[in-house]
Every structure is written in C-alpha cells, then in structure tokens.
What does this fold into?
Amino acid sequence: MEVKALVLASLLSFLRLAAGQSFTLSSASFNSEERGYLSSGDATYEPSCGCVHLTTSEWNQQPVNSSGRIVYRHPFDFRDDSLRGVASFNTSFTFQIVRVFEDGNSGIGPGAGMAFMLVPEANMRLPKNSYGFYMGLLNETMQGNNSTHMLAVEFDDVLNTDVGDPSASHAGVDINSVISVATANLTGEFNLTANYTLTAWIEYDATTDCLEVRMARNSTERPREFLLRTNFSSRGWKLSGVLNQERMYVGFSAATGQDCFQFHRLYAWNFTMSRVTKCNGVDCPVVKVLVALSVALALALMVALAMVVVFRRTKKIAYTIHMPESVGITRFSFKELRSATRGFSKKLLLGRGGFASVYKGTLKDRTAVAIKYLNRDKAEADSENSIAQFVAEIRVIGQLRHRNLVGLKGFCFERAKFCLVYEYMPNRSLDKHLFDPKGKLEWHQRLAILRGVAEGLAFLHEGWQQRVLHRDVKAANVLLDASFGAKLGDFGFSKLVDHGTGSWYMTAVGTTGYMAPELYTGRATERSDVYSFGILALEVVSGRRATSLSKDKNDEDSVLLDWVRELACDGRDMEAVDPRLHEAAARAEDIVRAIRLGLHCCQLEAYKRPTMRACCQLLQSNAACLEAPPMPAIVSSPSVRGLSLDGSGEGFNVDDDANHSS
Ligand SMILES: *[C@@H]1O[C@H](CO)[C@@H](O)[C@H](O)[C@H]1NC(C)=O
Ligand SMILES: *[C@@H]1O[C@H](CO)[C@@H](O)[C@H](O)[C@H]1NC(C)=O
Ligand SMILES: *[C@@H]1O[C@H](CO)[C@@H](O)[C@H](O)[C@H]1NC(C)=O
Ligand SMILES: *[C@@H]1O[C@H](CO)[C@@H](O)[C@H](O)[C@H]1NC(C)=O
Ligand SMILES: *[C@@H]1O[C@H](CO)[C@@H](O)[C@H](O)[C@H]1NC(C)=O
Ligand SMILES: *[C@@H]1O[C@H](CO)[C@@H](O)[C@H](O)[C@H]1NC(C)=O
Ligand SMILES: *[C@@H]1O[C@H](CO)[C@@H](O)[C@H](O)[C@H]1NC(C)=O
Ligand SMILES: *[C@@H]1O[C@H](CO)[C@@H](O)[C@H](O)[C@H]1NC(C)=O
Ligand SMILES: *[C@@H]1O[C@H](CO)[C@@H](O)[C@H](O)[C@H]1NC(C)=O
Ligand SMILES: *[C@@H]1O[C@H](CO)[C@@H](O)[C@H](O)[C@H]1NC(C)=O
Ligand SMILES: *[C@@H]1O[C@H](CO)[C@@H](O)[C@H](O)[C@H]1NC(C)=O
It folds into this structure.
C-alpha cells in the first residue's frame, strides 16, 4: 500500500514538474515536501521559523560579511517570439527583514538588504565578494557590466547614497547593477525598518513592457494599487537584451556586511512564467492567426508525406540488412528460437516485465541463451521506421563487448515478432539475491558486483567511440554469471526512444527510485546513470530496495536514500548495513567507502557527482574514503542545512559538459 502511495506521489510530482517545464511554473513552498531549490553561500533552511535565512542565522553579536542566495532548481528560458522577445512572469513571496542591530554603539547598524533576481546559469552561484550593498547579487567586476544579464528587484532597508538609494526603506528595479533604474520609498505599512512580515508581488507583463511591484502586510490578497511601476520601453531599456540567456534561474539573494547585520527571511514563494504570445488587434488579427495555422498544417502534411516516403525506403533497407561478420551477432529465425525454448514454454520463463518476457533457451549447438521476447502490438511492431532503428541499434550494441556487459549473441525479427538473444547468466539478476530474505551474498561478492557494474558503465560512457547511456541501471538489470560476476544487461536500446516516432518497447525510460531528479524535466546524461548507480550501491550495502520503507515506524515514507544520507551525516553509516552480512564488521572500511560513494553519486546537482571512471577508482580498497556529502537544502527531514553551491573544494571538478550525451 505504502509503496503504491509512494509511486503515485512520484508520478504526481513528475506530472507537476513536467507541466512546469513547458510554460507555467508554480510554487516552491519551503514548508512543503517539495525539494524545490538550490542554495549557495550562507542561505539555510531554518526549521524554527519554517523559513529560509538568506544570510547567516547565527548571530554572535559580531557582524560578518555574510551573503547567500537560493534559486529554483530548474532553469527557465525567458526568450520568446513576442513583440518584446521576452516572456511575462509573476512572482509573489512573503519575507521579513529582522533588524537585530539597531543603529547605535560602535558604528554597527542594520543592513544590507535582499532582492528577488533573475540570473543566468553562469551567475547562478553566489559571486565572490558580493556582500554589503551588493546584496549577494553581483560584485565589483559584474557591477554595471552588460554581460551580467541580471534583472532584480531589491528590498533595501539602508540608505546608501553611494549607490543612489533614495531613502532608508525602498524597493528598486536593478538591471546588471545595484544602482536602481527605478525606486519607490516604502513607508508606513511597508516600512522595511520595522521587522514587518511582508508579501510582495512582482509582475512583468511583456505586452505592456511594464514591471509592477505591489506589497501587503498581514495579507496574501493581491492589492490593486502598485507601489512601483517601470516602463522599460519608455526608458529605452530592452529586457530582451538582458534575459536572453537560454538557462536563467530565478531566486533571492541577500547580504550583510562588515559593519552591518540583520536576518533576511523568506517564508513562501511562487512564480509563474508565461511564454504565450498575446495579440493585440493590430499586430495579429484573427486572419493572421488562421493563415499561420493553415501554413503550419500544410507544412505538417508535407513533412508527414516526406516521412512516409522515407519509411517506405527504410523498410526495404531494414529487411535486407545484413550484419557484418565481424560484429559477431547472428540473425536467428523465429522458428529456431521457438524450438530453442520449446515453443516459449512457461517452464523456461525466467522473468517477465511490462515490455518483454525472458526465456531460457538452448540453441542447436547446445549453448544456453536467454531469449528476450518483446511484446508489442502488431500495429506498432509493423512500423517500418522502428525496424530500421532496431537494426541500427543492434549493430551498435552488438559491437559493445566488455566483461561486465551481457553479451548480445543475436536477434530475430519477423513481422511482429522481435527477440534478442543474450548469453545465459545462470545466477539470474542481482535483485533476486539482494532482496530475498534468504539471499546469501557476502560482502566480498557484493563489492565485486559493484566494481563490475562500475566498470561496465564506465565502458559504456567512455570506453567506446560512441557514448552510450544505459538509462535503466537497477538491480534487476545486473545479471550474475556462474561465479557471481556482474554483467550489466539491457543497455543501449533506450536510445531508440529518443529517435522513435513512438515508443519502441519501453514506454518510459528509467525506474522509479533509481531516476535522477533532473530526469523529470531534463535530458538523460552520464550523470543520471551515475545517480542510478549510487542508488544501486546503497541497495547493495543495505539489502533494501530504493523505495522500500525504512524500519523506523515514525518515519514511514522515508526512502532509502534519505535514510542512509541521514545516518551518514551523523557518522552512523554502519547502521545502514544489511544485517545478513556476517563479515561486515571486518570490512567496515570498504563498506563505509561504498556508502559514501553512493551518496556522492546521488547528489542533487548532477555536476557534483563523480564520473563512472572516478567511481571505479573510488571503489578500490586503497582509495581514500569520502566525507559524506552535505545534506541537500530541503529533504523530508527539516533539521538540515542547505547544500553549498559555491563549488570550492566539493564536487569532482568535472567539466560541466555532461549534457552532451549522445
Ligand atoms: C568584511 O569585508 C571587508 C572588506 O570588504 C574586510 O575588511 C573585513 O575584514 C571583512 N570582515 C569579515 C568579518 O570577514
Ligand atoms: C500575472 O498576474 C496578472 C494579474 O493577476 C495576470 O493578469 C497575468 O496574467 C499574470 N501573468 C502571468 C504570467 O501569470
Ligand atoms: C566576482 O565574482 C566572480 C564570480 O564569483 C569572480 O570570478 C570575480 O573574481 C569576482 N570579482 C571580485 C572583484 O571579487
Ligand atoms: C564584464 O564582464 C566580463 C565577463 O564577466 C569581463 O570579461 C569584462 O572584463 C567585464 N567588463 C568590465 C568593464 O568590467
Ligand atoms: C549596456 O547596455 C545598455 C543598454 O543596451 C547600453 O545603453 C550601455 O551603453 C551598455 N553598457 C556598456 C558598458 O556596454
Ligand atoms: C523618498 O524619501 C526621501 C527621503 O525620505 C525623499 O527625499 C524622496 O523625495 C522620497 N522619494 C519619493 C519618490 O517619494
Ligand atoms: C519605519 O519604522 C521605524 C521603526 O518603527 C520608524 O522609526 C521609522 O520612522 C519608520 N519609517 C518610515 C519611513 O515609516
Ligand atoms: C526588530 O527585532 C529585533 C530582534 O527581535 C529587535 O531587537 C528590534 O528592536 C526590532 N526592531 C523594531 C523596529 O521593532
Ligand atoms: C498586522 O498585524 C500586526 C500584528 O498582528 C498588527 O499590529 C497590525 O495592525 C496589522 N496590520 C494591518 C494592516 O492589519
Ligand atoms: C502566489 O502567492 C500569492 C500570495 O500568497 C497569491 O496571491 C497568488 O494567488 C499565488 N499564486 C499562485 C499561482 O499560487
Ligand atoms: C511605455 O512606454 C512606451 C514608450 O514611451 C509607451 O508607448 C507606452 O504606452 C508605455 N506603456 C505604458 C503601459 O505606460
């Protein structure tokens, strides 16, 4: 039941995020379970107020140069085809500036302020030396520099005439600079110097090119009256020249300084972006829309026709293709395979999934094989395009030979009948041993399996002329030979899903529990395989399923990763170990190393995860043991600190090009 609920929950969150990716995005509330943001600098979640402290929450009567920021986890593309070339957006948030130092003794006062910001990916992390009146937004190098690509709305409670502040309590619109292009004094109910909890609305409407700021106290009802309105066109500013980066992040920043200190709290936040182009009568009359529509339709028809022609052609190619001898894979006839499996006898069934059944077979030359019979409905199976791709993929995969990859011996396709013939693995798959209460895998075997899987994945990622992603690393896809050596199965085919007109034999790529967070909105990369490998490592050590519930009754919906992560942060790694491991105590060092590596592989930010090559090295007995990675900013347990994005020291200094996957 609970597992079902969990699966449903992940499914729902997937749907929500997927919709968000398109045009409209909504809420990342800090009290909810949604792990919506990344933080850098001193920003931390503070359970006592249920809020995020953007600057340090530790006050020891000493002002420090503290600065911090959070950004929503996924980037936005603000460029659009409308008149202004930028998308409209609305945001609303509830915040509080708490002035723990009032002006007075020893020249120390309150400061310095906070801001809502839109920043490009390059400037997503907190810039160095951005404390003081820079409010964590930018630093001296970036100030006034058009390559900063930043739009911000500041809430500043200190009068600093150096940067043109109008008063001690004001809002300002900032473009690539902390010298505002427009400001408004905030007095009375909106007084920033009075510790008030305030809600602000910032709305940019691309049709009018105006940005409006509204505020309310004790209310989340949007007021009619705005406090500040900037008409960018009338000032000769083009937002399209600022927000023109493909990946922009939205968030908040704040700072204190060397002679000022205060708390900057953020309680709730929502954000919507809309790239829907609105028309006004003159610019796009209905006629124009209709014309555009019919042109689009005509084009679509032409493309469809062209595709049919191409399919026709590929059909011929597909059916006459021959494997080069050197590839070493055989094309079997369906008849051969049918007799090898005694007519696909139920007695020889090794396993059954949503898309395929696997049978044990014996070929004429008496070699044992595993035959995967793909279930497809006839209509889909007959799509000529699929067949051409299937054959193309088989040629690629057939050439991938590695001791930790299950060898493909051959294939068969005849009309709607598709089979893949693999070498037979007598000890079946890892999950059958790992999650069986009677399973007997000892630690040295488990470690060897992990090393094998790591080697196999490293080979897929880097060992061959073409990068291959596995995309479905999980215990059920790790197969064990007679001596419990690990071989990774089911690799490579997922590529078909990308190119295909429809699904091939997998409707979704990946398995709940093993899927990296970025997969819900982005593309698969090597680092998402690394994430799945990390989960697998935790399963291997703990003997528990990724989505199984923890034994702690008070913490019923915690998943394996969260549970192990918390234990590791407390230095109690060994409590996660499978109690069935008799040699655990003697091999504690290796075990902790594997746990820590698993956790590093499962970090939220893909770039911090090690490469598979690095994993291979880190699994060696002489490798140094990693520290447990910091807790992510929001996890189910509220009592944790934000994770750092400043990059120094942590992570693995990977080139950030993990995106070029195929
Ligand atoms: C804060 O930064 C200033 C330079 O801007 C430096 O002189 C001062 O020592 C720093 N204070 C702390 C506590 O780091
Ligand atoms: C922003 O809010 C205004 C007023 O509620 C609404 O008219 C507009 O459509 C919203 N824009 C977006 C992008 O959600
Ligand atoms: C400003 O920040 C960038 C990025 O963190 C850094 O490279 C640069 O050195 C900083 N400039 C100053 C003056 O600190
Ligand atoms: C503006 O920023 C770019 C890149 O951040 C830097 O190369 C350039 O020197 C800066 N220009 C000025 C005038 O500081
Ligand atoms: C920055 O861009 C603005 C607006 O396009 C322009 O007026 C200004 O001259 C630019 N500044 C620099 C230093 O290039
Ligand atoms: C803002 O306040 C300052 C000083 O309190 C005053 O000089 C200035 O005129 C005010 N600006 C507006 C737009 O009211
Ligand atoms: C803001 O509130 C503070 C403290 O309550 C008060 O001293 C100050 O005069 C107020 N300022 C404005 C502009 O209302
Ligand atoms: C704001 O809160 C701080 C700490 O609670 C307190 O010391 C300070 O006097 C308050 N300021 C105002 C204007 O209420
Ligand atoms: C907001 O709440 C505070 C404290 O509950 C109260 O003193 C103040 O009058 C309220 N303001 C408004 C505008 O309702
Ligand atoms: C965002 O929050 C504000 C204030 O709480 C609220 O008025 C608005 O309706 C919210 N918008 C969405 C889309 O949740
Ligand atoms: C913004 O400024 C432009 C150019 O000055 C003007 O044509 C337009 O009407 C203004 N828009 C609004 C909503 O005031």
